[in-house]
Amino acid sequence: MAENPATIPSDPGENISKSKIWQVIGASSAGTVIEWYDFYIFGSLAAVISPLFYPKGNDTLALIAYLSTFAVGFIVRPFGALFFGRIGDLVGRKYAFLITLLLMGGSTAAVGFLPTYETIGIIAPIALILIRVLQGLALGGEYGGAAIYVAEHVPDRSRGFYTSFIQITASFGLLVSLAVILLIQRTMTAEDFSSWGWRIPFLLSIILVGMSLYIRLRMKESPIFEHIKSTGMASAKPIVDAFTDPVNRKRLLISLFGATAGQGVVWYTGQFYALFYMQTILKIERQTAASIIAFAIILALPLFVAFGALSDRVGRRRIMMAGCLLAVLAYYPIYQGMVHYAGNDVAAIESTSDAVTGKPKLSPVTSEGKAITTTAPNPNVPMLTLLVFLQIVFVTMVYAPIAAYLVEAFPAKVRYTSLSLPYHIGNGVFGGLLPTIGLIACAWTGNIYAGLWYPMIVASLTFVIGSLYLPETHGHKIWAEVNDQQS
What we know:
mainly alpha, single chain
């Protein structure tokens, strides 16, 4: 690529063949799906694993402790964003997410080999927490690299469409984790799965990561990063540059509170909280609950591409804010419908008291209450799938355009660092803590809808702040900014 600014095309993405673009998307997506699979397999097996790694005696507290460990991985994601974002802005997008892939894969496989509490005592939950920290750090660097790598290869006019395929990977990774679990569960007894079968999904990560690593090693660096590095425009101190520039600092705050915080809680409500809610509050058998989430995700996957492409035409902000608002308005009636179609009425659920808290029992394993059995007697699976699907529609609205928005919002020399931080605070902290906060709220208030207050408040704040202050970025030409800096 020529270094003379006069010879640099305003949008080199127009000159890259579609076959090359799809190769870039395929290579980036494959690794990202695997990293999301690794990260979410931990949560998908919460109901099975929680009694194994914590002292026996109270399954509600064990589940909350496990979900807290699960949440640790989200809390450290912003630190991973800073660490690997710096590498991505200094060394390159490709090398940063090669490292994150290896770190995530090794950590996930380690869970598959980890002895339980019965074998090594308190060391088991401590080791689990440490592994979860490594997973969170790895994911903190993965997403930004994949999103930027794709965005810096494609035409400006269709960035929302092409980056939407990276946005699919998070839900698809969750879908793969659920599918693998269901497949393994159907090949063995429940006792065998609870005893040792749960380890298999973690150990499969070794094979999946090896395949993805081979694909990613064959990839070339992003053309924009190659250009800014070869022309001396790369930042020598990306973290300093990202936070000392008042304009960029303002973009970071607006992106966090006006976009990613609300997007994070909508994403985790529609998929993870819905899964935990069905298993723990509504007492739907865990394989049935996982199947409901899986089918709803499959139905919704095309909408990521649809809303990503639509954002190229009508704007990123309008679609994301509409998704936040619809979620706030619809959550209560949707979850009331889920209670109804689960086959357990509110009185029956609330009459099942926990021995410690005196509130609704959250464990799907032990149920000693007066009016409810271990599993819901007759859940209406089609209607529950529809209600979860509606929640994932909101997910596609807020999530599909956000990669394109974040890439366009920040300058190339600090893009990896700047993009990753608000994304992982919004998703890792605001979103990732949601299942734990929601189930604790239900347990301690005795109100089975109390867990919805948190996502509704956060999504409302994002709607207000985003509607007022979030800039519209669609149509922004990211190569023009590089050319302007050089000229």
